[in-house]
Design goal:
Blueprint (H helix, E strand, L loop, with lengths): L2 H5 L3 H27 L5 E5 L6 H14 L4 E5 L4 H9 L7 E5 L11 E16 L15 E3 L6 H12 L8 E3 L3 H10 L4 E5 L5 H8 L4 E2 L5 H7 L4 E5 L15 E13 L4 H15 L20 E2 L1 H9 L3 H5 L2 H56 L9 H17 L7 H22 L8
Helix pairs in contact: 2-12, 3-9, 6-7, 9-10, 12-13, 12-14, 13-14
Length: 445
Amino acid sequence: MTLESFALLSPRGRLSLAVIIFILLVPTIWAIAYFLKSAPPRYIVLASGLEDGLLHQHAKRYIEILARSGVTVEERITNGPGDNLSLLQDPHSGVDIGFTQGGIAKFPEANNVRMIASLYYVPMWIFYRSTITLNHVNELRNHPVAIGVSGSGARSLGEHVFALNGLTSANVAMLPLSNDAALRALQSGEVDAAIFVDGAENHAVWTALHDPTLKLLSYSKVDAYHRRLSFVTKLTLPPGVIDLAKNIPEEEVALIGTKEMLAARDSLHPALAHLLVDAAREIHGKQGLFEEAGEFPGTTQVDLRVSTDADQHKRFGRSFLYQYFPFWVATLAERAIIILIPLAAVLFPLFHYLPQLLRWRVRSRVYRWYGELALLERDVAARMGTLGTLPTEKWLADLERIERAVARIHTPAGFASEAYTLREHIGLVRRAIMARNSPPLVTSG
């Protein structure tokens, strides 16, 4: 596009071009506004869990890792996964991400929540005090049991398992105690059993495993739980894996559990989803008591719908930009590319073909009258030698109309010769008409 191209335009053409430019500016301004608005937030809120649980410890790690990329994470202490999912479902809670676990989500209430990744297995530990060994959950009937506070992972999974075993508040005294409080109640005899749903590193679980006065229930029907509850996984605690020197546990223990997950609202920025997957890999990617190295983070669906952004990042890894540039530089470059490529696809062809379009438009103003003049000339030629009165006045009136229209055409210097040729042609046709109208010369013999 050059200044010469603009010179080809009439005032009306320039107005039309201005309108076109304005129409192009509107999406450009929108794209810039979208570019600024769609930047990933530098501040998010993470709903974790109880202060004496592992989720609180994991939250500290996420805060530390995301801070390296310039993202500030505020931790909100809650009762656990049940509370966290409720906060994520509430658009006014202010929570962006949170830990939850399988078996809590109900639909359609959780349709706006996505799983970023599953993180690790959380067994359902049932510790009890008894002189006899228990093999079935329903043997807790008519006993006081610490089942966890409302909104905790223990309470959520415990209620599912208790329901399958016919245990209700009518035949079991369910006390809302979690972690250290539940352990103290069990050791003091306030309750006969306590449920914990957390990793073995949880202080209360680890203490209970080493307490010789407490026993750990080994589930005798693990396959049944797995079949009845899709989110339940069979787990095995090998002999001596907790403490080889003290042989804890003395025998293999069959357990059931589910997966801990990191979840977010479906509006979470894709760049943050990528950042969270990378942080989860750093925190949870190692081998554990129940996990193989590299098994987590995972994006296989547990119950919540899986974030497409997180799944693609998990499968394909970091893009070129994120591998070689800091997080914020990479996000800016990525969004710029997303905006500029479609704009370039529209603007480059436009500016390439616009000069040709302008030339065609100028020529079309001249060639239009060439067409009318050619029709008139053929009409004059067709009546050659015919008898009768010729429509000379009509021909001359049409010529006059064409000539006036041509005179009004604004023709740039580059096309002056074509306009001049048209005016000459008009003169030729006029002379031909006048010649048709003149009487033939009579020669005397």
